[in-house]
């Protein structure tokens, strides 16, 4: 029976796998949350020497969980072994910020990791490997990875802003007291930082009388134009303040959403936010990894075109682009 033929396993690399996000994401991947309930996976887990014992503990637990889709686990501190033949690379390895820091404060430590791992991926990953960078500063780490792995197609290198996108959906849902699954088409523009612009101008809510614009349902423009934006921009910091650790389960879940939609496609009429290599759309200069609204089909993303941008949005989109330009030069100064 053809329907019972098992798919070939997909090799998924998780770097920083002994860390917080690593611990949250590996069971999700092994349960099919990222690539689908019929997709077997082989996990490649990378961390550094001081975390080797903890990494081995994660491997033990993955074996103990007896996940039916999990066809193998490679746990290693060798980037070459980790990258060998991987189809998906989830780059979490790096250092998280602590209370009082901006994400770019971890720049000097983290960009050098992305420069080094770019070559391991370029040389050893599968040709069509899809890369998702999570470690902060996520956009700039992704850009450095792209620049030091020139043979990986630029369309295959992305960074995570889906967490911000999901946070925006969550805030709208809480404020209107509607199901989060009925809210769609928010946009995160720009950097995964406090300059990001969460935009609700095209967002809608499914109601009993059809789809309604969020702007029509939320009567308080002041909330949408001020507090909503700063809440989403500052949510990472608020979680750090509360947990004394940065967000992990929501980041892991958003990373699964990002890869699932990229590989399996976005639902009809829905877009999501992804940090991707700018092609000049919406006047954002090419050569930045910038978060745009995208739809995905057959394993490829495309930027949603033709959305009307008002003056308020324009200024915010440009401000976050400007920060990315500054981060790029700071990153290069850290590498020199
Ligand atoms: P963590 O400190 O718990 O785990 C990070 C792991 O990376 C550690 O186990 C560490 O040993 C490992 N590591 C360090 N250098 C490495 C290297 N060269 N190669 C492989 N592994 C290496 O941190 P965390 O909470 O899991 O967060 C990881 C990163 O993700 C941080 O930079 C954090 O700021 C970022 N983050 C991003 C988002 C986002 O939405 N983009 C959300 C949450 C966290
Ligand atoms: C987040 O958005 O939660 C992460 O980027 C962690 C952080 O430093 O805010």
Automatic annotation (TrEMBL):
Q: Name one GO biological process term.
A: tricarboxylic acid cycle
> Which keywords describe this protein according to UniProt?
Membrane, NAD, Oxidoreductase, Transmembrane, Transmembrane helix, Tricarboxylic acid cycle
The entry's NAD(+)-binding residues are: 16-22, 47, 110, 134-136
Q: Residue limits of the Lactate/malate dehydrogenase N-terminal domain?
A: 10-157
Using the record's annotation, list all stretches that form the Lactate/malate dehydrogenase C-terminal domain.
161-329
Q: What GO molecular function terms would the record report? A: L-malate dehydrogenase (NAD+) activity
Q: Where, by residue number, does substrate bind?
A: 97, 103, 136, 167
The protein's matches in NCBIfam families, at most eight in alphabetical order, are given as: MalateDH-SF1 (TIGR01759), MDH_euk_cyt (TIGR01758), PRK05442.1 (NF003916)
**Catalytic site:** 192 (proton acceptor)
What is the name of the protein in this document?
Malate dehydrogenase
Please indicate if the UniProt record lists ATP-binding as a keyword.
Answer: no
Keyword rRNA-binding included in the entry's annotation: no
- Enumerate the transmembrane spans: 12-30
The family note in this entry says: Belongs to the LDH/MDH superfamily. MDH type 2 family.
Q: Which reaction does it catalyse?
A: (S)-malate + NAD(+) = oxaloacetate + NADH + H(+)
EC id: 1.1.1.37
